[in-house]
Amino acid sequence: MSALRTDSPQALRSVVVGTGSSLPAQVVTNAALTERVDTSDAWIVQRTGIRQRHIADASETTSVLGTRAARAALDDAGLTGDDIDLVICATSTPDHTFPATATQIQAALGIHQGAAFDLQAVCAGFVFAVSTADKFLTTGSARRALVIGAETFSRIVDWEDRTTCVLFGDGAGAVVLEARADAGDRGVLCASLRSDGRHREKLYVDGGPGSTGTTGRLRMEGREVFRFAVGQVTDVIADAFAQAGLTADDLDWFVPHQANRRIIEASADKLGIPREKIVLTVDRHGNTSAASIPLALDVARRDGRIQPGHLVMIEAIGGGFSWGAALIRW
Predict the structure, then answer these.
(1) Catalytic (active site) residue 123
(2) Do residues 155 and 169 lie in contact, with contact meaning Cβ atoms separated by under 8 Å?
(3) Do domains 13-180 and 187-329 have the same CATH topology?
(4) What are the strands, taking DSSP E only, across the chain?
(5) Which of 46, 78, 111, 286 is most buried by its number of CB atoms within 10 A?
(6) 187-329 CATH fold
(7) What CATH topology corresponds to 13-180?
C-alpha cells in the first residue's frame, strides 16, 4: 500500500531510534495450564512452540504495559515525552471503549502536544501502525512518533477452551520513529497491507459494545487460520520485496508475528528465508497479538542480533483477516 520513496537526499525517512518492551511479572508455564484445562506441555509445544506466557495482574492494564514499553523506548533513544508529537497504540484490548489507550499512555508520559490514537488490526496492528506513522513522518506532519503494540489478551480468552487459552499472553513493545532527511538508506523502506473481512468467523471475539454490550470471548477456527496464514500471508511479503527491489537473500532478520512456530517456519520456508534469520520469541511470550513484533524486535536488538544497517522484515496476520509486511533498514 505504501510506495517506496525516492532516493533524493532530501526525502524524509522514518528511522527507528529506540525500542522498548514490558512484560507482566507473572509467568504461566504449560505445566501450570495443565492444572486448569485438559492439555499437556508436549501437546502445546508440538503444535505451537509455546512453553510459557506472561499474564497480567489486575493492576497491569494495557495502558500500564504500553506506558512501560514506551518509556523504555524513549530511554533507549535518549529522548523524553517533550520530543514526541505522535503516539499510536495498536491494540485489541484497550483499557476502555474510549478514550483511546494511546491517550492514556500520552498523559502518563507527560506528552501534551501532537496526536494520540489507537489502531485496531488485531495481530497485524503493529505493522499497520508502523506504516501509518511512516505516513505522518515522511510527509512532515510529525517529527517523532511512539509506535506501541500493547495487549492483555488474557482478559478476553475463554479459559475453559483448551484450544485457545494456551496460545495467548500479555505484554507490550514500542519503537520510536524519527523523521530524518539525512538517513541515507536507513528507515522504513516500504509496507504492504491487506484486509479481507469475509473471514471474520475464522478468528473473532463474540461480543462488543455495538452488538452484545459485552466484552465477549475470543473464538478461533485453528486449522483455517493456519491454512490461510501459510497460504496467503506470503503475498504481502513478496510485494514488499518487490517494492524495495530486494529479495529474501538481502534480508538480515525476519521478525514475524509470534503466533505459532509452525506457521512462522512454514512461511519462511515458502519464501526461501533461512530459519537462522528468524527471530523467535513465541516460546517465552506466547501470542501477544499486536505486541508480539515489537517485543521480538526489542529482544533481538538488545541481545545484539539486530545491528545498524541490517535489513529487517516485520510481518503479521490478524483476525478479520488483516495482514501486512514492512521492510526496515535499521
Answers:
(1) yes
(2) no
(3) yes
(4) 13-22, 27-29, 52-54, 86-90, 115-119, 144-152, 170-180, 187-195, 203-205, 218-220, 253-256, 311-318, 322-329
(5) 286
(6) Peroxisomal Thiolase; Chain A, domain 1 (3.40.47)
(7) Peroxisomal Thiolase; Chain A, domain 1 (3.40.47)
> Greatest CA separation found in the chain?
60
Active site residue 89: no
List the catalytic residue out of 89, 123, 165, 190: 123
Sketch the domain layout of the chain as residue ranges.
Answer: 13-180, 187-329
| pLDDT tens, per residue, the chain with 330 residues | 334 444 444 699 999 999 999 999 999 999 999 999 999 999 999 999 999 999 999 999 999 999 999 999 999 999 999 999 999 999 999 999 999 999 999 999 999 999 999 999 999 999 999 999 999 999 999 999 999 999 999 999 999 999 999 999 999 999 999 999 999 999 999 999 999 999 999 999 999 999 999 999 999 999 999 999 988 888 999 999 999 999 999 999 999 999 999 999 999 999 999 999 999 999 999 999 999 999 999 999 999 999 999 999 999 999 999 999 999 999
Q: Quick one: cell of 316?
A: 503479521
User: pTM for this one?
Assistant: 0.96
Please check whether residue 127 is in contact with residue 314, taking contact to mean a CB–CB distance below 8 angstroms. Answer: yes
Known catalytic membership, residue 287: yes
Decide if 126 contacts 258 (C-beta within 8 A).
no
- Among residues 54, 190, 285, 287, the one annotated as catalytic is 287
